[in-house]
Write a structure and sequence with these properties.
CATH superfamily of the largest domain: Response regulator
Order of helices and strands: HEHEHEHEEHEHEHEHEHEHHHEEEEEH
Oligomer: single chain
Structural class: alpha/beta
Largest sheet: 7 strands, mixed
Number of strands: 15
Helix content: 40-55%
Length: 416
């Protein structure tokens, strides 16, 4: 008759253990790994705020699987592959199940993906996903594709195809110089520029090409002098962050009126201000949306809510979309088991604020609309709203669907 009393502490301990395990299951940890210090810290902070906002919104609406909340862990990549892998190990030690990254550049993201591939192979049952919102080297969804990696931005080839389609209808572009950062994606942007713009406009002359160290050039005046000597009227550049703003400043100081073609610079804080201060030059870039874009009520509503909560301007629907795609896949899978979530992400169709998007199963490339737009003075017609406290905003030049820009792939996806 005393057994129940003797067993009571054991039973209580068991209940505590079960309760603790249940509590742990109520949190799904996501690790954010991007630059939070150094020359591109403003880019990393922007991307972090977008990610935080989306996760808090998901949690406010009940989380996933009827109550599991998402928890965001933050790590500074320091724009270094080595630091990113240290951050990845720390994320693993803290129980992360998914990595959100992309602002550190394709070489860093590639290193993270390779490390995750090895970890997942050696640790079945503890697998990780990599959700990449901004590193757009086609190799990541091409020859170097991974079952565990998903890309939520249009890749370089897709973006350059949109740019090439625009240049095809822009006869004043005649002589093009290629100036890019000396890393994998900078070289890719230059290569696709030659290839796709050359196909669209065989008459265009490519008059020079230079690669420069990423994030280390303090004065672009010598580069601008070389561009001027070449006789170029336009520059295809993948520069972003301070490398873009300093290039604009140097050209403006030199009185050189250039047309720049870029993949995402307009979404980085400070770029519009730099264009307005240079007073010369046009910057045409491509993204899934731009501020002030007409007929985008869903993004407008999201941007308003984001501004009200964070006090900051909303710039990148794809970054906000990334954790929402993950949440949709978890709910579709009915599980937080990583392989199941990965399979659920494949061919997932999602009704995003920029319209329906689909995660292509064969290479894990999101098919997402792209808007070619140019930073230009407010004129009340094509540009109605100024940005960053200036009288410059964004002019819509062309809009292409993800399917229109989709490319073939060299991916040979290895299933786990």
């Amino acid at each position: 008759m005393k057994f129940p009393l003797l067993l009571a502490p054991v039973a209580a301990a068991a209940l505590l253990t079960i309760g603790s395990a249940h509590a742990q299951q109520q949190t799904y940890k996501i690790a954010y790994i991007d630059p939070l210090s150094g020359p591109f810290a403003n880019v990393g902070e922007l991307m972090l705020t977008h990610t935080q906002f989306a996760i808090e919104d998901i949690n406010a609406k009940g989380g996933v699987l009827g109550g599991t909340k998402l928890q965001l862990l933050q790590f500074d990549s320091k724009l270094s592959a080595q630091e990113s892998q240290s951050a990845l190990q720390a994320a693993i030690d803290q129980g992360a199940r998914a990595i959100v990254t992309g602002g550190s550049g394709s070489s860093v993201v590639s290193a993270i993906v390779q490390a995750v591939n090895k970890w997942n192979q050696r640790n079945p049952g503890k697998e990780l996903l990599v959700l990449n919102h901004s590193s757009i080297d086609p190799e990541l969804t091409g020859k170097s594709c991974s079952f565990w990696h998903f890309q939520t931005d249009a890749n370089t080839a897709m973006k350059m195809k949109a740019i090439a389609n625009y240049i095809k209808k822009t006869p004043e572009v005649k002589k093009v110089y290629l100036l890019n950062q000396d890393y994998a994606h900078g070289k890719q942007w230059a290569s696709y520029g030659r290839q796709l713009v050359g196909l669209a406009r065989p008459d265009i002359q490519f008059v020079g090409e230079t690669l420069h160290p990423i994030g280390r050039v303090k004065d672009f005046a010598p580069y601008v002098a070389n561009i001027r000597q070449s006789g170029a009227d336009s520059v295809i550049t993948g520069n972003w962050g301070q490398d873009m703003t300093l290039l604009l400043k140097a050209a403006g100081d030199a009185g050189y009126d250039l047309h720049y073609f870029n993949h995402s610079a307009g979404s980085v804080p400070g770029t519009v201000l730099a264009v307005s201060q240079a007073k010369l030059g046009q910057l045409t870039w491509v993204a899934e949306w731009h501020p002030g874009q007409a007929d985008s009520p869903k993004v407008d509503a999201l941007a308003k809510a984001y501004k009200a909560k964070t006090g900051k301007d909303f710039l990148a629907p794809r970054i906000d979309m990334t954790p929402r795609l993950l949440a949709a896949a978890i709910n579709k899978a009915g599980s937080t088991d990583t392989p199941k979530v990965a399979h659920a992400l494949e061919n997932l169709t999602f009704d995003s604020v920029v319209g329906p998007v689909r995660m292509r199963a064969e290479d894990h490339q999101l098919l997402i609309p792209q808007v070619v737009n140019t930073i230009a003075p407010v004129d009340g017609k094509t540009v109605k709203v100024g940005w960053e406290g200036t009288n410059y905003g964004f002019r819509t030049d062309a809009i292409y669907s993800g399917n229109e820009l989709a490319q073939g792939t060299d991916c040979k996806m290895a299933q786990p």
